[in-house]
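[User]
If only I could read backbone structure tokens as easily as an amino acid sequence. I have put the entry right below:
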Amino acid sequence: MRFPNWKSNSKKTYQQENIYGHMKKLLLLTIAIWYLTAGCYSQTDWKSFMSRQDMTWTRLPQTWYEAPFMGNGSMGSYICKEPGKNAIRVDVGNSMVHDHRTDDASIYGRGRLLIGYFLLHPVGEIKSGDLRLDLWNAETTGCIRTTRGEIKLRACVTSESPYILVEAEATAGEKEFTWKFYPENTDSPRQLNAIRKGNKNHLKVLEEWAQHFPNVISKKTMCPIPPRNCPHAMG
């Protein structure tokens, strides 16, 4: 005849009760933290809070890697002074515009292709300017100051449509400023960077492309330039 192990059972019961007790305390603590967080969230002026995190430029960015960026995950743009020119650049980029080679799984076969950019040509000579990347409104605002006056800018990329919107408001001396679009060669930045670095694997890939697609390789840069009827350029 076997008797139950009361000592063992009582030990297990104590351990279970102890675990349940800790779980209840943890649940109550989680609920309390949630209520505190919700209360703080409802009392926060998020517009004011986000404005304190805005990036500001007290001088005009001189190149793309200094510029404020905007985008919606596909369409993108940035604003800066065009190097070597008396103009402001508004770039046009879209991740859906890329090389589409199904026979090349390397990084070069799916590389993004350049599209182009707009230049704002003021009447006077650009002297200074400032920009602000507004996080709350997802837009860039700023002022371009020239020898003839000022041009105020406001730009954004729409969240659900592939549009770049730019508003420009000029003082009397700059009323005749102009916009002009400059298309880029359909070169991949990856390929251009590899050429600058002298990447031998990259040059080998381009030689293979030249054999299969002789009409889409630029002799000047050794980069693919898909014509309108080329199936490997998708946009």
Observations:
- The first strand starts at residue 55 and ends at 57.
- Residues 212-235 have pLDDT under 50 and may be disordered.
- Residues 100 and 232 are 5 Å apart (CA to CA).
- DSSP finds four helices and twelve strands in the chain.
